[in-house]
Amino acid sequence: MAAKNMEELVSLCKRRGFIFQSGELYGGLQGLYDFGPLGVELKNNLKKAWWSSMVYERDDVEGLDASILTKPAVLQHSGHEDTFTDPLVDCKSCKSRWRADRLDSMSCPKCGSKELTKPRPFNLMFKTNLGPVDDGSSFAYLRPETAQQIFTNFKNVVDSTSRSIPFGIAQVGKAFRNEVTPRNFIFRVREFEQMELEFFVHKGSDEKWHEYWVEKRLCWWEQQGVSRSKLKEFVVPSEDLSHYSKKTIDIMYEFPHGLEELEGVANRTDFDLGSHTKNQDSLNIDATIKENTDSVSRLATQDAETKEWSVPYVIEPSAGVERGMLAILNEAYSVEKIDGKKERTVLSLKPHLSPIKAAVIPLKRNNKDIVRVAKEVKEGLQRLGLGRVLLENTGNIGKSYRKHDEVGTPICITIDFETLENKTITVRDRDTMAQTKASVSEAPEILKNILGQG
Predict the structure, then answer these.
(1) What is each CA distance from 164 to 132, 158, 273, in whole angstroms?
(2) 399 and 266, same structural domain?
(3) Domain span at residue 396?
(4) Can you give the pTM of this predicted structure?
């Protein structure tokens, strides 16, 4: 099941506190979104799942959290200053601006005029001033991707961890792109988060590792609840490859607005470390790079037997957090008929991603004993450290169930008069709506089992 259209997801996200338009009370700011009480939980859970898979469950990956403000020299030698552009056209009639490569015909989507300017390159990077004087002489870029600081920290990580090839460096963090036409809700925005791995390998083994990481990423998305049948591998044509890429496979997903990239897995060859290293002439670099006389570090590894230095190739799986959230929400969303009459909206999220892991519901909101026990059960489950547990004290059990179906809570635990009498609880499953009895003491084990922690 999936949403019929983007409007269904946008409505759910605002109604239930997943995602809001940034600056909405002042008319909003295009391409920027704020993540509400449930959105921030889902977002953090997705990043946690990625980090666990990439760093904790492997013995060949280290983590990094680098600065957002980026020295211009980094993005000069990476090629971003020269190539990180979109073709921009202006409508002479209504003064709107558009990406030329996104126009189905050379006419304005807003007013229909064919009076458009010739396409010109528009750099997507945001600049900001450094220091007290804004005279343009001292500035930094807001990083357009998380990858470059991984490359510039390559030697620091190798020296401090004694890693040898093959190994990877993972990073999750903010990136910024001054998109000409942000669109499709959180799919293409100006401020977003990336989950990127740069996996360094020996030349000659790069194609094998590239295939490995494509399959690894497909499996991971499936574990997050994205059906394998909805994922397609797209081999990027040679004429569309980025300047650094030997081969890129985009993992495509059928979003509500169409089939688009969910994650890219690129074979970046030795371009990146080769571009940022000193002593380029002595390192037999394969990629076409520009001369670098600014770097003070040799970003290469030495063969233990031959003592020769070489620049590693790199395989890069790169995914956007917001695109991942959109795909996961879309896959989990369904509207079901109950008894052929009533409808319920359900988010069948994987439990490890659910913003609320369990809701504890007192049957009577004004019964002090029932509410007291409900608080005790809630606090006991919260202390497990498995995620957010919510005390839902609304007094309407039916509405509480429907609410938690809609936000993806795996189980609801009802505290009633039988709880006071014989210490039993009612556990309701989100997906099946089945209700089972259990003892209060069993609640922690039930939740751990649901979350795969038992």
Answers:
(1) 43, 7, 15
(2) no
(3) 354-450
(4) 0.93
